[in-house]
């Protein structure tokens, strides 16, 4: 589900967006804001995935809001909805995903939302699992295909994803990944999940500890003692 904050000082524009979004699956409007400062306050409180943002507003315009949001973590997706086309270049300089002219048309909004889903690594419905894990590197977002992931391990406050392209840091806790991807990922340690389809066996080290052998990588994560029996049983069933 993509959580959306609507920001516009025109009630009619907000009503139109609410009406359009009401018929689109996988979208939930979590709040509205009538100016830029209110938008930043509600973003800090609610942490929505996406802002549909007007440009010309009192107190603080949409471009200033976007510039502020670039400094925040997590950084949301931004789509501008405005009656003026002369700010398009500035909008994209502020990392906007799209620039919609009012009155916003359904097909343009749908296309923009699809861009946001791809950017965020989300799907159109809660019933369809994500196919990507999203990692932020500075101002860039990297989408890691699930099929490329070997394992995920918790380190301090972050989660490290080991994948075919190397390693990436994400801010999703391990327990959330385990819950969402219980079919794809298997817990082998309190701080490690592995991709079930990459498991190829066990190997004991010179200290007597068991490690998991994974296809496609030399990395062999440690298995906790209480999970060794679970892994052995799982391997027998394959």
TL;DR of this structure?
The chain is of the alpha/beta class. It has seven helices and 14 strands.
How does this structure look, described?
There is one protein chain. This protein is an alpha/beta fold. It folds into two domains: 2-120, 3-Layer(aba) Sandwich (Rossmann fold), CATH 3.40.50; 144-236, OB fold (Dihydrolipoamide Acetyltransferase, E2P) (Beta Barrel). Helices cover 30% and strands 32% of the residues. It has seven helices and 14 strands. The chain has a five-stranded parallel sheet with strand order 2-1-3-4-5, with helices on both faces. Strand 13 (199-204) and strand 14 (210-214) form a beta hairpin. Helix 2 (36-46) runs parallel beside helix 3. The two termini are 33 Å apart. The model has no long low-confidence stretch (mean pLDDT 87).
């Amino acid at each position: 589900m993509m959580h959306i904050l609507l920001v516009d000082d025109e009630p009619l524009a907000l009503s139109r967006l609410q009406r359009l979004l009401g018929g689109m699956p996988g979208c939930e409007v979590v709040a509205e804001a009538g100016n830029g400062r209110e938008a930043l306050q509600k973003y800090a409180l609610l942490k929505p995935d996406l802002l549909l943002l007007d440009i010309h507003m009192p107190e603080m315009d949409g471009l200033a809001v976007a510039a502020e949001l670039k400094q925040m973590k997590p950084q949301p997706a931004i789509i501008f909805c405005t009656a003026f086309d002369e700010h398009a270049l500035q909008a994209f300089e502020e990392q906007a995903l799209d620039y919609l002219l009012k009155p916003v048309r359904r097909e343009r909004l749908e296309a923009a939302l699809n861009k946001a889903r791809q950017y965020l690594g989300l799907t159109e419905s809660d019933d369809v699992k994500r196919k990507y894990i999203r990692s932020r590197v500075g101002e860039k977002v990297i989408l890691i295909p699930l099929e490329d992931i070997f394992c995920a391990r918790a380190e301090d406050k972050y989660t490290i994803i080991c994948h075919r392209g190397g390693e990436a840091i994400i801010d999703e806790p391990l327990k959330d990944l385990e819950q969402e991807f219980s079919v794809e990922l298997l817990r082998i340690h309190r701080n490690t999940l592995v991709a079930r389809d990459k498991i190829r066996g066990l190997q004991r080290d010179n200290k007597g500890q068991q490690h998991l052998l994974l296809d496609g990588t030399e990395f062999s994560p440690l298995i906790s003692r209480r999970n060794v029996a679970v892994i052995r049983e799982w391997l027998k069933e394959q």
